[in-house]
Amino acid sequence: MHLSLESLKQIATRRAFLGDASTGVATAALATLLQSRTRGDENFKRTGTRIGSLSELPHFAPKAKRIIYLFQNGGPSHLELFDWKPAIEQMHGKPIPSDYVKGRRFSTMTGDANNKRMLAPVEPFAQHGQSGAWVSQFLPYTSKIVDDLCFIKSMHTDAVNHAPAISFMLSGAEIPGRPTLGAWLTYGLGTETENLPAFVAMTSVSKNTSCGQIFYDFYWGSGFLPSKFQGVKFRGSGDPVLYLSNPNGMSRPMRRDWLDDIGALNTIKLKQVADPEIETRISQYEMAFKMQTSVPELADLSTESRETLDLYGPQVEEPGTFAHNCLLARRLVERGVPFVQVMHAGWDQHNSLTTELYTQCKDTDQPSAALVLDLKRRGLLEDTLVVWGGEFGRTPFIQGDIDNRPRWGRDHHPYAFTLWMAGGGTRGGLSYGASDPIGFNVAENPVHVHDFQATILHLLGIDHERLTYRFQGRDFRLTDVHGHVVHDVLA
């Protein structure tokens, strides 16, 4: 095809126009990004505490400044740990009344729940502390700190399988793709440190467990928020964060020069196309450079006293364990990290209540209690919210053969379960809500997942209805279009 000189001039003119227009849009977008960053810097200068926060946040005075979320993947059995039901002991081995299971949805492993046999708790319960909270013998260390804990015994959720239920608990949606709680808080509130990520995730699994759950990256994802708000995963072996070490033959000054040149090229591209992911790439490179110094110092436990290490238990010096991650979580929030998500898998006791549940509790009980005590004695618990819980509970009826005790188990149960909170403006020594006599349904003061999320945001000074992000023509929020703050659990 042959084009005339006039046609070529017109094409060139159109290209120039579009190029100028796109540059204008890119410049405006970059200005917006830089303005947002400047607002964050100004806010940091004004308050002395936050970098990169939205100018309108917090909406009101927060009770908590940071969160450590001890997420127990798999669904810890509320009936084995916190929710004592003497009626179940009396009904052990008898069929569950049909009125409870009629019209209810269970996992495919249960199928038809009619005539399933009731299962009594494996270990006895006792009351503890001045509050008289019921805790089973599975958790001897947690039982000693019950007056610092706020139990919610009326949690309920919508999902019956692990990944959707975990996604729902952390992001407000069963389908992956929404920002998780840590991403929302990082986006809204910024951070107190420039040398560590604002949102850190760590994972662990009890040794020799039969639980085959996977830690999906979307459990700490940023969804449709810019990816600079996603969690940074700290590993349990080797370098805590991938690619922190300089390649062979590259010195730190050489890497600094290399990053400066790459950053300059990325900045040029950002001005051209205004893609926020380019800004994310720039910030990630800079954070990685800073973490070359901050992360090794963070991971060095030699400065911790023997008394502190013993507090967390025998696994504390073994990287990749829950105990080690709990101590790192305390060290992270001490250094200004506002959200730490510590995830531990193995709670899926379909046929291992009498075997693996003992190991699970041994691995997590002492470190969880130690974290609360350690924060408290350092003056950090008052404005640090600690959350302990999973995605759902377990059924009051057995999964398996009632006559085969070594294989006793319980299936997933979304209709009632228990979690606890400590510090951060919550009421210690409180047991809020209740399930029915067999722990099947919520009987008093129900707390839905969205209510729980709204309450967490409230503790951080955020109105959950006002923290939104426009995506595909709609304003999204963590609690979707639901959620009510549970004021009764607030100090």
CATH topology of the largest domain: Alkaline Phosphatase, subunit A
**Which H/E pattern describes the elements?**
HEHHHEEEHHEEHHHHEHEEEEEEEEHEE
Counted by DSSP, the helix tally is 12
Describe the oligomeric state of these chains in a short phrase: single chain
Q: Tell me the fraction of residues in β-strands, as a range.
A: 5-15%
Radius of gyration: 25 Å
CATH architecture heading of the largest domain: 3-Layer(aba) Sandwich
Please report the total strand number as a whole number.
Answer: 17
Describe this structure in words.
This protein is an alpha/beta fold and 491 residues long. Helices cover 36% and strands 15% of the residues. It contains twelve helices and 17 strands. It has helices at residues 5-47, 78-81, 86-91, 98-101, 162-171, 181-189, 252-273, 276-299, 306-312, 322-334, 356-377, 449-459; strands at residues 66-73, 125-128, 133-136, 149-156, 199-205, 232-234, 339-345, 384-389, 393-394, 412-413, 417-422, 430-432, 434-435, 442-444, 447-448, 469-471, 474-476. The strands form five sheets. Strands 1, 4, 5, 6, 7, 8, 11, 12 and 15 form a nine-stranded mixed sheet that branches. It has a two-stranded antiparallel sheet with strand order 2-3. Helix 1 packs across helix 7, helix 7 (252-273) packs antiparallel against helix 8 (276-299) and helix 10 runs parallel beside helix 11 (356-377). The longest helix is centred in the first third of the chain and has 43 residues, at 5-47.
Identify the notable features of this structure and list them briefly.
36% helix, Alkaline Phosphatase, subunit A, 9-stranded mixed β-sheet, 2 domains, 12 helices, alpha/beta, two-stranded antiparallel sheet, 491 residues
